[in-house]
Amino acid sequence: MNDKKKLLIDTALHLFYENGINSVGINEILKVSGVAKKTMYNHFKSKDELVVATLESRDKIFLEWLDTQLQRSVNKLDVVNILFSAMTSWFKNEVPELSPFRGCFFINTSAECSNKNNAIYQYCANHKMKVRKLIQKYLQTEDESLLDMICLLKEGAIVSAYLNQDLNAANKCIPLITRHVDTP
Fold first, then answer.
1. Which domain holds residue 134?
2. Given 3-state DSSP classes, what are the helix, strand and coil percentages for the chain, each rounded to the nearest 5?
3. Contact 8, 44 (CB under 8 A)
């Protein structure tokens, strides 16, 4: 990837995650990045294209991080413990690659989209499906209700950690789920 394009994506991701996509204009991204407007428009036809590029970047970063965490699991109970412990580390800003915690970039971004059919909203929804599939891969279960419970509690923990500043929200989910996990 071109250095200027990467700089634009990294700068926009930082500003969008910190302030929201609708609060950050192209001129602010250009000012902070030091990239010329013409160069930006050579890489991105619109702000929406840049937003999607930031979603793609965050998606890759988040999924690689989560996959690395879940690889350590050997059974369903491990998946639950590792998943929610990793989230607690994220909430407490102990995961440098995820930057300071400001909630879920995908939840925040999708909430700013009024059109559920646009590429930005669709990318956010797709990210959540990828996370679900990743958890399912390590959980190794066909039990959709267990997977639903884990994913719903995960999303609720993210929202509680951000809105209520409950940085232990994810850890509170572990005992709720472990009651429903069959261990080998």
1. 53-178
2. 70, 0, 30
3. yes
